[in-house]
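Subject: Sanity check before I submit

Could someone independently write out the structure tokens for this chain? I want to compare against mine line by line before I put it in a report. The sequence has 758 residues.
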Amino acid sequence: MSLKSEAEPVQSPADFERLLQVAMSDDGGGEADPSAEQVPLLLLVDDKPELLQSLSELVRAHGYRVVEALGGRAAIDALGKQSFDVVLLDLIMPELSGHDVLEFAARKGINAKFVVVSGDTSFAGARDALTRGAFDFVKKPYEAAELLAALEKALRHRELEQRNVHMENRLLMSEQLHRFIVNSSPDLVYILDRNGCFSFLNDRIETLLGYRKEELVGRHYSELVHEEDLDAARNLFNERRTGGRAAQNTELRLRSRRARSTERPFQSQFVWMDLTAQGVYSDHTERTRANFRGTYGTARDISERKEAEQVINFQAYHDLLTHLPNRALLRDRLSLAIAQAARNKRRLAVMFLDLDRFKIVNDTLGHTMGDRLLKAVSNRLQGCLRKGDTLSRFGGDEFTLLLPEVRTRDDVVVIAEKILDKLAAPFVIDGHELFVGASIGVAMYPEAGDSVESLIQSADIAMYHVKGRGKNGYQFFAEEMNSKFSTRLSLERELRNALTSGELRVFYQPQVSLDDGHIVGVEALVRWQHPRLGLIAPADFLSVAEETGLITQVDEWVQARAFQDIGEWRRVGLGNVRLSVNISAQQLEQDGFLERFFTAFVGSGMAPEQLKIEITENAIMKDIEVIVPKLREMRRRGLRIAIDDFGTGYSSLSYLQQFPISTLKIDRSFVGDIRADRSDASIINAIVAMAKGLKLDLIAEGVETRTQLNYLKSQGCKEVQGFIFSRAIPAPELMGLLRNNPFAGVLRGEPAVVASAI
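---
Independent answer below. Compare away.
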């Protein structure tokens, strides 16, 4: 293989690997380096055997390797099979002459040195031989010294030519290697002339920015630079410094023609680049204005890193569901707005929005539907904003709106009413027509506070006042609202203390059979024996317990105490009564709930059929996938499940059939609708029919009048509880009722005689 065959264009990575291996080899991948020692190989051509032998002996005696060819045809055959350094060629030969051999060598590109050794001493013969490619001419008969001198001269020329070819090939390979490296670089490589126009760009420009090199050569760099980065670009692309003082790691954006990816939301038509640049001079030892030729540099694509930084920054300051600012960004903007308002003596407003009825949607249709509703709500709310306003998702179904630059309350009222009006229209999602409203609290700066925390808290307090008076409205904060809010905080703090100091009590309300008036069960209900306020009913503190998460501790305490009381009743022979305990969704959702619950239950000594679990249908619907499997496990272990407050929730009949329940408990609100004319009892009739159809037990709560009692009995309701028999009473009083069973007379029209409690 010749050296020149290695200097082919690089077309592929395989070519590059080949070229790299060649460049790293000692000989450049072709013929041996002429500087390396080797014995020359000579071809001796003559048609006279005796002359050929004589010539062969002469050159062999001087250490050369020899191949003999008797005549022109033999010479051509030898030249076609191998390479020779020098050919000693006779011209006048029969059949094929030396001239024919020279023509063959020229035609085939054979680069051996031909020294003619001939008896043809005519000028025309010598000229013709030299014209056809002969290097030198020695006439016969020859002097040995003359012949050897001509041979050595030819060998020296041959060596010089080989060295030259070898050097050219290595230079060519080096150029191709460097060109391939430059064009295959992941970085953009560019050269600008002294006027800032591109004079060279590597192939990376096409994949990076979508331009062909030919389009940009001769054009000014500013045509590619983002307008906001032109100042930085002027310093960079006009760089005259070299070495360590030259520009490095300068970030700016270059214009791109490449299509944007829909999977990269932060991608733009500009590519972020990390650039380096240094001046180029015609004489690097004398860097003067006259010697300046332009700028050389590289540019690396850092778009993915910049996009990742944008994503991280966005996630840190935005809600991932709605893409609205989160509370951290709101606080930053509110802090800035307060500073500007104080400096300019202006007012601003903070709105705190809590969605009404969102929990119903979330509990009945699931969290996925709830998330979609939140996004739809956020879109509508953004349509109510002015330029410069900030809408943020504060958490859950709560939103906060910052209104800088408001002059009067009337400006805020306009926006609040616009929000309520926008939210009044139904949201249609997957065929579901959903309705939500908003309770809006408003805090004005500086009246309602002069700090971020005070304004948000004041707006929150005002929002709770809207909730308390019926929801779906707005309310400006007033100082007197603080007292009620402080009372709520105090109640939360005291409830936490009540759990640790033993202030809670368990009362029991009897559940009576309408067949014979016997007590068939009791429901465990919590009361709070407050050291200062006395006995507090659950309606006054359970909502705080639910909001703060204390309801789980309350439930566990009530259940443990009720199991303990049942154990005591069993020891005195009163342990056959059924116990009903309430369980909240928060307690059911806890990890390890079943193990803790059954450990406490087994200690009571009760049979599984003596325990009934009461849970509201809204609690079940809150997280069906978590709660229902746990209820099924409780049912499998023999416990009975009752749906409390049935009829007030939003579960469908199809869901009801899937629940592992044994009892429906009619809510007191429906029992209260029973009148003497029975005109308002249609819901109870439907519930009774449903229970019969599903073969479920039925119990009614809140029974207070004989009309209600008689109607329920006529409809086939087997058990009731309510004030007509007894209020909830402490355990010692209940034990007396269990011994005497005094309620049979009530069914006959006699009044109940029970100690008063709540």
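---
OP: Matches mine. For the report I'm noting this point. Residues 514 and 718 are 5 Å apart (CA to CA).
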